[in-house]
Specification:
elongated, alpha+beta, 67 residues
Length: 67
């Protein structure tokens, strides 16, 4: 039997939501071991002069705790 934990992280990208998610998971993987999944809780864009300048995501990352 395993025990999992969920933590919330925020990531951003100037390219796309997909890129922000990938950056967030890549960074989380440096400190969280045994990541098993994630879901996007929220998305947001930053707009300047009518142009999107940044894509932000709030991720819920699930990882299994060591035994």
């Amino acid at each position: 039997m395993s025990v999992a934990k969920v933590t919330e992280i925020i990531a951003s990208s100037n390219k796309s939501f997909d890129h922000a998610v990938r950056k967030g998971i890549k960074r989380a993987n440096k400190t969280l071991k045994n990541i098993k999944g994630a879901w996007v809780k929220d998305q947001q864009v930053v707009v300047s002069n009518g142009t999107i300048t940044s894509y932000k995501v709030v991720l819920k990352v699930t990882f299994v705790l060591a035994g």
